[in-house]
Amino acid sequence: MSRRRVLVVDDSDVTRTLLVRTLERAGFDVLAAPDGAQGAVTALRELPAVVVTDLEMPLMDGYQMLRLLKNEPASAHIPVLILTSHGEAPSRYWGLQTGADAYLTKDYDSAELVAAVTRLAEQERPAPAPDAAVPASPIEVLARVARQLDANLLRATVVNSLLEQGLRPDDLHGTARAALEVIGRVVDAHVLAIGISAPESVTLDVLLSKGVSLSAMERCTHAILAALEFQPGADIDASVSGDRDGEGDVDPATIVSFPLRLRSAAGTLALFPRDAAQFAAISRSLIESLEPHLAMVIENAHLADRLQELSTHDGLTRALNHRAIHERLTEELERGRRYHHALSVILCDLDFFKRVNDTHGHLAGDAVLRAVASTLRRTLRSSDPFGRYGGEEFLVVLSETSLEAGRSTAERLRRALADHRVALPGGGGLKVTASFGVAAANELGDDPSSEALVSLADRRLYEAKAAGRDCVRP
Question: How confident is the model at residue 228 (pLDDT cuts 50, 70, 90)?
């Protein structure tokens, strides 16, 4: 490809002739075409150093030719200079957005045109991709443009569907699930998933297509988690949707992952295509073009979840804060009154916690509080909210739970804490114990308040402390 070969495309015979003469006098080898279709055929066949084009032309305008040249691997490297008038600011903007490298308004002088073309011709550019078939006629060029427009329309439609999910007031799981459903309509895959990993937590949403067995889903989930980076012991919040009643198998080795560029965490879109070769040929480029839009939707939902968490959760332990756990208790009391359900609470206080801070330092105290919260989280039902009620106190709300069942739960928590050795920041570890007070709503009559219920649990907590600690009362 000669650096001195230039293609001029303009439907005006007068303008085209002036452009050709100006550039030839400057030493360029000039080719000419009367419209975008002929220009595209010539550009793909001759691969000029620069294309100079008008925008408004019959049969195929400059935008369509520009879009075709920038999408064809053989011609994507060719710089394009567009010519516009002063009143065509939208045209200039759209031309540059479509892929033009520069523009001149039509009151240019000869020196300005030659300088612009020379600059573009001398730019370092990647070598052209090995050739695909060059279109032989304007009709074939128009057919390629039509296919590109269809592909762009498909991409725009999917992007619009993704962005609609981002505008809905949904939580992260809901947004991720909706986004996976959109992607599942254009990608033929057994399993799709979105994973978000922060240092101490992982959020995973998995969408199963019809016919995938539960065991295959579990193997795929392990493969997805292996592709994510997170600390050992991190909390994993997983949600699975779709058909779980199938019997079909999936090879975990077929996983295809796409990083999601999130600012607030590490993200991954993972899928297991039904046909790897077909996916690579048809769907991979579509997914890659969707990634920035999917990342924006997931980022927004993740940030909204984080803001909600910051307003309702304790920053150190990630348990609910004092206000939030009191609100949950009030809600559960109201639900219990309405449906005549039992309800119990557990108030837990660490034994000799001041001694931990005094002996090992406050960083060790923080590690103990985080470990206690993690143990409570693992031991309780996922439906049982708990919160940091005070410095080293935690309040657990047990819906549909009698006093006796609440006591059994407290005893299970006590054993789990006593059996756990907390790793300290400077090395080594220690064991901690806690005392527990349990109270049931029905002990306070037909209309107990949250304050009265917690007060009863608090009195029993002090009974446990007085009884020697590391025990449950009543």
Answer: confident
Helix 353-360 with 362-379: angle, nearest 10 deg: 140
Average pLDDT for the chain: 89
Question: CB under 8 Å to 186, separation ≥6 — which residues?
Answer: 154, 158, 283, 286
255-262: long-range contacts, CB 8 A cutoff, minimum separation 24: 255/220, 255/223, 255/224, 255/227, 256/284, 257/227, 258/287, 258/288, 258/291, 259/291, 260/194, 260/196, 260/291, 260/294, 260/295, 260/298, 261/291, 261/292, 261/295, 262/196, 262/295, 262/298, 262/299, 262/302
CA pair distance 64, 442, nearest whole angstrom: 75
Question: What is the Cα 301 distance to its own chain's centre?
Answer: 8
Domains of the chain: residue spans and CATH: 5-133 (3.40.50.2300), 156-303 (3.30.450), 322-473 (3.30.70.270)
Q: Say what the pLDDT of residue 169 is.
A: 57
Asked if 218 and 206 touch (Cβ cutoff 8 Å), the reply is: no
- Could you give the C-alpha distances from 463 to 91, 387, 388, in angstroms and in order? 80, 22, 21
Average pLDDT, stretch 72-80? Answer: 89
Contact criterion met (CB below 8 Å) for 192 and 254: no
* 160-180 mean pLDDT: 83
Could you tell me the pTM of the whole model? Answer: 0.64
